[in-house]
């Protein structure tokens, strides 16, 4: 039988030494898995305990700094940042010997596996010496738990070009939102309402995460703001030929089109009142009954309802039919604005960049510099992901090689000059935390001075500061 080739991941065993690794490789070969590459993980500072053959055999030694090898969180964090990146673009299969190391090290492999963080098809193995024969053996670990994280990762791998949020958000606000989303999306038959400012990615979340979590591939998205109120009922519920003037042929309607999937009403507050009332009746019981226009027979569909709105909940209550609001307000998730998720901003920026980047001469990974970091960490980002998209496009337009810094600086100035939120929406004292307001004020002052005195040098002179400070200030905050 031919051998499959693969990569083996294994912690160094303090107790049993290099034998564990050698035995695991042999035992895998007996199972027709030929290990070509080994990532041998050793706690930083313990390298001297690593057997000499590891170096001779060209094994990749990965030193992992750990304050305490019994703490799951520390191990998890280090493995995510030091080991997982090495697995990108892996050829062949991945095998993990979960046996060596502390129990916490052991369980982190299981957690990563259940969370979908490892490449598809990764195999977990448990190695030991057979009690009877004293020969090495290796057994598959059956740990086929799947979590919503695993499902989302799988989705992201299927659609690599599409930017989707990382399910393991770093910020508390996003983490809580995704946790709620995962719980609520799994409730079958209950409408889900997703709130959030413009550009927080609600539509994409529904079409990806929510669809995956609900295990429904089809999502029929209805942008309610653009519907013609005279035709909306026929559009949603369908009609029979001759139901009204102009109904020349039968129309199935979006509800029927969504059968077996999700009907997603985006900006639900813009749905005309009559259609809202009719929807309440459709979703009042599990049978989802409705009557197409001009028909005397009821139809039933199997549809999950998801709605989204960028209005705050109090305002939405005022805009929606009372019964529809009551129906929709059982399961509500608010996607936080980007300014409340600063810890995630670098990843967000990276995803936006990769999705927008089209030219081969631009780097695949988003640029990152002190200027960019400061701007992204202090800008109000009222347009959320769309602000990042605008910055990415500007950076691409001003890109300069081989040193991109001047172009990025210019892009930041242009970015700050125009904001996606109209001026009157921001208060005279800025918005957000004290630090954010101070940045906002400094940015306005710097730009005002530049306009007033003509050049950065003259403006700095007039304000009694250095030019560099003033230029830096100008790219912070929101005008
Ligand atoms: N996780 C993401 N990472 C990067 N870009 C994203 C992500 N999700 C969505 N986008 C992009 O951000 C933009 C805004 O996304 P989306 O339309 O889903 O937001 P929204 O909250 O529905 O906005 P609106 O309320 O204005 O319709 C889209 O152009 C989309 O391509």
Automatic annotation (TrEMBL):
One of the protein's GO biological processes: regulation of DNA-templated transcription
Entry-linked InterPro entries: AAA+_ATPase, P-loop_NTPase, Sigma_54_int, Sigma_54_int_dom_ATP-bd_2
Organism superkingdom: Bacteria
Keywords: ATP-binding, Nucleotide-binding
Gene3D superfamilies: P-loop containing nucleotide triphosphate hydrolases
Domain named Sigma-54 factor interaction: residues: 167-397
Pfam families registered for this protein in UniProt: Sigma54_activat
GO molecular function, one term: ATP binding
Entry protein name: Sigma-54-dependent Fis family transcriptional regulator
Species in which this protein is naturally found: Aquitalea palustris
């Amino acid at each position: 039988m031919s051998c499959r080739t693969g990569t083996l991941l294994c912690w160094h065993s303090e107790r049993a030494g290099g034998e564990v690794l050698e035995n695991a490789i042999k035992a895998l070969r007996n199972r027709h898995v030929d290990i070509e590459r080994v990532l041998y993980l050793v706690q930083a500072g313990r390298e001297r305990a690593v057997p000499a053959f590891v170096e001779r055999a060209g094994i990749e030694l990965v030193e992992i700094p750990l304050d305490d090898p019994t703490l799951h969180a520390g191990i998890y964090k280090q493995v995510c940042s030091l080991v997982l990146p090495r697995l990108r673009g892996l050829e062949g299969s991945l095998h993990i010997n979960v046996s060596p190391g502390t129990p916490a090290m052991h369980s982190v492999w299981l957690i990563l596996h259940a969370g979908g963080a490892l490449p598809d098809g990764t195999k977990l193995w448990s190695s030991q010496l057979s009690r009877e024969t004293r020969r090495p053996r290796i057994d598959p670990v059956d740990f086929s738990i799947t979590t919503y994280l695993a499902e989302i990762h799988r989705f992201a791998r299927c659609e690599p070009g599409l930017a989707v949020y990382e399910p393991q958000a770093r910020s508390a606000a996003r983490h809580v939102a995704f946790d709620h989303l995962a719980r609520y999306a799994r409730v079958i038959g209950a409408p889900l309402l997703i709130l959030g400012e413009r550009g927080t990615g609600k539509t994409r979340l529904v079409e990806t995460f929510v669809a995956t979590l609900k295990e429904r591939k089809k999502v029929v998205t209805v942008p309610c703001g653009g519907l013609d109120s005279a035709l909306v009922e026929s559009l949603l519920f369908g009609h029979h030929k001759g139901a009204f003037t102009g109904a020349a042929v039968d129309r199935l309607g979006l509800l029927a089109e969504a059968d077996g999937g999700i009907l997603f009403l985006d900006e639900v507050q813009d749905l005309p009142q009559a259609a809202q009332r009719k929807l309440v009746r459709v979703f009042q019981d599990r049978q989802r009954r409705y009557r197409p226009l001009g028909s005397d027979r009821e139809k039933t569909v199997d549809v999950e309802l998801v709605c989204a709105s960028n209005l705050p909940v109090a305002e939405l209550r005022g805009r929606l039919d009372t019964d529809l609001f009551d129906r929709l307000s059982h399961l509500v998730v608010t996607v936080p604005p980007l300014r409340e998720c600063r810890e995630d901003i670098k990843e967000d920026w990276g995803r936006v960049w990769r999705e927008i980047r089209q030219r081969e001469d631009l780097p695949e990974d988003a640029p990152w510099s002190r200027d960019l970091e400061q701007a992204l960490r202090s800008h109000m980002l009222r347009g959320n992901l769309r602000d990042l998209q605008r910055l990415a496009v500007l950076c691409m337009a001003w890109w300069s090689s081989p040193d991109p810094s001047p172009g990025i600086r210019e892009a930041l100035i242009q970015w700050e000059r125009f904001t996606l939120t109209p001026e009157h929406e921001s208060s005279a004292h800025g918005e957000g935390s004290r630090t954010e307001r101070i940045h906002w004020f400094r940015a306005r002052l710097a730009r005002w001075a530049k306009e007033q005195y003509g050049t950065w040098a003259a403006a700095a002179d007039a304000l009694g500061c250095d030019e560099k400070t003033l230029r830096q200030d100008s790219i912070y905050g929101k005008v």
